[in-house]
Structures are given as C-alpha cells and as structure tokens.
Amino acid sequence: MNLIERVKSILLKPKETWVTIESEPVDVAGLYTQYLMILAIIPAVCGFIGMSLIGFGGFGFTMRVPIFSGLINMVVSYVLSLVGVFVLGLIIDALAPTFGGQKNSIQALKVAVYGSTAALLGGIFSLLPALAMLGFVAALYSIYLVYLGLPVLMRSNPEKSIAYTAVVIVAGIVVGVIIGAVSSLFMPRGGAMFSGADAPAISVNTPGGKVTIDTAGLEAASKKMEEAARQMEKAQKSQDPAAIAAANSGAVAAAAGMMGGGQAVAAQSLKAALPEQLGGMPRTGFDVQDGAALGLPTSQASASYGSGDKRVRIEIIDIGGLGQMAALAMGMGQGEKEDQSSAEKTWQENGRTLHQSYRKDGSRAEFKTVLKNGLVVGIEGDRVGVQDLRGMLSQVDLNALEGLQRKPKG
Questions:
Q1: Which of 99, 108, 294, 330 could be joined to 156 by an S-S link, Cβ 3.0–4.6 Å?
Q2: Residues 6+ apart with CB under 8 A from 105
Q3: Alpha-carbon dihedral of residues 159, 161, 162, 164, nearest 10 degrees?
C-alpha cells in the first residue's frame, strides 16, 4: 500500500476506495505501522510547534507552553491518539449488530484508521493556533468518511448509516474527552511562558521564500516503528510486564526518531553560548535541559538577566528536524500587524526566519530567530525595547550556533 496514494484516494474518491479497502488483506500491525503511526505524527508535532514554539495570543503578548512540557505532551498525545483509534475500532465493531451489520474487528479498525485520515491531516493547522478552526473542518470530513465506510466494511443497513455514524461519533467524542483529560495531566499548571543534497525533502513556497524540510530519515525511522510495533504485539501476547514496558519504550523512541531524527546538539554547548552579562545586566540564573532521558532529540539552555525593573531572558533550543517545521510554520505567517498599542512582524533574512513583537509602551518585547540548522534562539524582556533586545542578542554568536552539527542516531 502506497501511503500517499491511499491518502489521496480516500479523500478524493472515498466511495470507490472503501470498496477496495474492504477486500484488502491486512492486520493490525500493518494498519498501524504503514498508515496510522505516520499520519498521527502530524497533529502531535504540529500541535507542539504551534503551542510551544510559535505561541498563541493577541497583539502585545504571546503565550507558549514551556518547551519540555510541550515535548512530553507531544509524545503522550501521539501515543494516546493511537490508543484512541484502536478503541474507536472496538466501538464500531461492538455496535455493528445493532445497526444490522456484522461484527469484524479488523474491518472495524479499518473504518477507524482510514476514516481518521482527514482529521489527522487537519492537524497541520495546529502549526498556527489561529487556524485551528480549519482543523475542525477537516474533522467534519472524517465524519463523512466514516459514514461512507460503515455500510461497506461492517455490512450495516444503509438506511441506518446516519444513526450508526452518529452513535460512533458520540462515542468517539467521549474517547477524545478522556484522552484530552489524560493528556492534560502532562501539561504545566500555571507554568506557561509569555512571551544532505541527495536526500528526499519537502519544499514549500512561503511569502518570503522557499522553506525546505529534510525528510531523509523518515524511511529508516518508519522501519524502526514497524519493528517496535512487532515487539509490542509480541509483548502483549506474553503478558510479561517487563517486556511490555520495554516494548512501549521502544515505540516511543521510534516515534521520537520520526518526529525529530538524529541527536540534539549537546545542551552544554548551548549553555556555553549564553553570556555572563547582557547589556550591562548580570546573569541571575540559567536552566539547562536535555531530552535524551525522554528518548527525544532535543536540548535547551536558557539564562535570565536583570537590573532594576529590567528583565531579559535568552533561550536556545534544539529540536532536531522539527526546527525546519518551526521555520515553515513561521514562514506561513510572514507579514506585519500593528494597532495602537502593539506591533509584530515575521520575515526571512539571510536564510533565517525572524519574528519580533512588542508593546508600544515599552513594557514588553520579544525577538526570535530560527537558524539555518534549525536551532531556535529567542530573547524576551520587560521594560526593554525590541531594538535593544536585538542589540543584546548580538552578544550571542549566532554564526557559531549555526555551525554546530548534530550526530545521526546510531
């Protein structure tokens, strides 16, 4: 099964495609590793970028979920979405006789997996929280896909398709609420921050130029994901808690490889770029974190500076291949906005993506850049103008940071 062709066919020719899907021999592992596990990455990764890197809010302020809380939530939401689709398949199977259909667990899972296609692809709108409503529209199309698939795969009475679909969707909403509640346990409480040449790649034209996302490691990571799924299936059959735990860890690591790829720049290397003083202000503290413990290709170093009522914070983040997606997301939002109290601007310059926002009363400002190698460098401050922030950032050697290389995963 070709992933791209299947996505196109289920979206553009759903009636004919459901007939094809009905007769296809497939197992649970195949549905997951060849289709669902790949598409489910889209809402997980894009949601993380939108909430933790791009941020959301109105003129004059931006709110972002702290980076490592966002990473944890990304992995948790990804895993729970896989679980949620499986549970939805069980519900579809259990309800089949009620609507004149035939129980068949694998056919029910096909409906849940392929019917979710539009909703999962709609997760790309999470890159820019302001476009999240378009993700809802995509989810509505998934309802239509399920409606068309139920009578074909579950052999239900066509006259009862609307009722069957309605009950499935209500059950799906309940599952989604439960998943959301579980995911929220991993979100911060009151901790939001304001503020190779021959490799295959995806290029997207933005108002400021072309942004390219390197996808060279995707195929290898997909194979690791497939192996992880086999180990999970084997562990579940053995009912060995230790084996199950190890298999789950392997699946998370494989997912992380697909989400970022490679090893992050060492956190200590990022810390070394933080100056002892900034604009005449002493460093009052720093925070260094490494995502290796989570199996994620990430690292972060930040420092705070202060003098009188002035407060400034610099943060350097390496999120591996996701940095290119951050550049893409910011590139999609290029332009300028301004009102009486605040202004913001996003643009590209010398291969870097830049963003600045500030309040005109001078109470708060922020400047952020995504470097060519995907590192994200941001500076924000209270009682400091945006031009002053940019001047302070010149004390950080961005060229040296841009020259740091990541090691591929072994």
A1: 99
A2: 89, 90, 93
A3: 130
**Residues 44, 259: contact at Cβ < 8 Å?**
yes
6's tokens: 């299947």
Please state, in angstroms and rounded to a whole number, the distance separating the CA atoms of residues 82 and 212.
28
pTM over 0.90: no
Rounded Cα distance between 229 and 342, Å, is 50
Buried b (16+ CB within 10 A) or exposed e, 18-51: beebeeeebebebbbbbbbbbbbbbbbbbbbbbb
DSSP conformation class of 12: H
**Number of CB atoms found within 10 A of residue 367's CB:** 21
The residue written with tokens 């109290």 in the block is 341
For residue range 275-303, list pLDDT tens digits in order: 999 988 999 998 888 765 555 567 889 99
Collapse the DSSP code of 145 into the 3-class scheme (helix H, G, I; strand E, B; otherwise coil) and give the result.
helix
Enter the tokens of residue 78: 């990804």
Q: Are 95 and 164 in contact (CB under 8 A)?
A: yes
% of the chain exceeding 70 in pLDDT: 66
- The label of the residue with tokens 């961005």 reads 398
User: Which amino acid appears at position 161 of this protein?
Assistant: S
Lowest mean pLDDT among 215-224, 236-245, 328-337: 215-224
HEC secondary structure over 68-128: HHHHHHHHHHHHHHHHHHHHHHHHHHHHHHHHCCCCCHHHHHHHHHHHCHHHHHHHHHHHC
- Tokens matching residue 388: 């002053």
